[in-house]
Predict the 3D structure of the following.
Amino acid sequence: MSEVRPKPHQVATWRFELISPFLDPTLDRAARRRAMRERVAVVGPDGRRQRVPRTTLFRWIRAFRAHGYEGLLPKERSDKGKTRSDTKTFVHYAIGLLLEQPQRSLVQLGVYLRAQFPGYALPPATLARHLHQHPAFAAVLALRGKGPRKLYGRYEASRPHESWQLDGKGPFAVHLKSGDLIRVHVLSVLDDHSRAILAALAATAEDTKATIAVFQKAATRYGLPDRMQFDRGSAFDSQVFRDGIAQCGVHRNHVHARQPTAQGKIEAYHRSLGRWFLDELKVQEVVDLDHLQQLLDAMLELVYQTHRHRVTGQSPKARLDDKVSARRVSEADLARAFFVTQTAKSHQKTGEVQLHNGRFRVPLAFAGKQARFRYDPVRQVAVLVLADGRELGLEPFMVLPLPTPAVAHGQGQLQKLLDSWRGTERPNAQPAFGLPEVLVTLGELLGRTVPIDASEAHQVLAFWKQHGPLARAPWLSACERTRKALGQGHALSTYLADLARQVAEVKP
């Protein structure tokens, strides 16, 4: 027997009965959310018992408010009469993504599926239905687990840049490609109205320097907010940061310690950050901290900023609409607002002064004197405050490296010992060449042993004292020219005279 499909008006009436309790204007938001949470499974117009998701109820409520009863009528499928595309490939791949990382959301799955399959166009509700029908989805639910849930109130700024929220998430461990392990914090600035992330920074510590850097990154691009909200963390509650935003004219909202509900919007963003970024790092190769920052920026721009927010009904990027604050500030003035004052004494001979952000050199007139300085805690910039209040810019103090020593190289037996002791042959000098090597080459020239008597020994010694020590290559070249010019059969004194002539021509 074929299934009897309910008529459109029966479906619309049934939908109105479900949403009518939530249309009561006397019902406040907390009571409406509580009633929606306590909803039970109902019998549909087709006779099946089912539980309607909250997202579906919100969609029907919006449709009724916009179009009345007609908005609840079921719409004909856009692909009616067409051959259905096979979704098994998409669903199997999505199941694999969930088994790899169970906390991935439908938004995240959609991004990954479109990147894998260019023709993918399944609506999130359809993908969710197929996933729940898949036999392996029970394993995904077992891996996910569920924690306790609470209901909180909600507030919202009336326009972009009226209020910013600042907070950090971490530390969390990141394994680099090189095998090193680093601990990283992610500091983010969120616009309260649009939920857009105005700036995010991956840093190795949640300290004052990183806090100022992420605030300046957001303020440089979007201008200054009217007010800011952050918890009582040591970096956010530091005197340097609080004085800096006060000089920028940014009011700080009062918050109590240990109350995360006051930071509800950025805490919700942190849950998305954990699911869409931190969990993905477990299966992502990271080269270094700069690469990690690039991965963070790409995820925020392509996933978080473009996803549809359930409360606002828009993506954070669309709700912000690239609006900037009317309170613009230059980078120089923004940096000056966070300058820190420090009193220090410079070195009398070098003029070096050690500040908290580095070492600098003072002019000669201030060397060895105690003075007042102002420095940038983020960058290596500092100024010297003069007695009349004027400021004098300072240059970083550079420690010069030791000069490379010049290595002497001479001829003789001791040089041979030195080269052997060093263990390496110097490419910029020839090996040592002494009197024994001269006697060997003279013997090759005469075709006999040299010297054969005391007279030849004195002749060679006199030649060596006058012209030695000699370099190997020029000496061998001179001997070859003498051999070609004179031939063999001459006395030793004849050869030495020709060699002495060549040496005298070469030496200056």
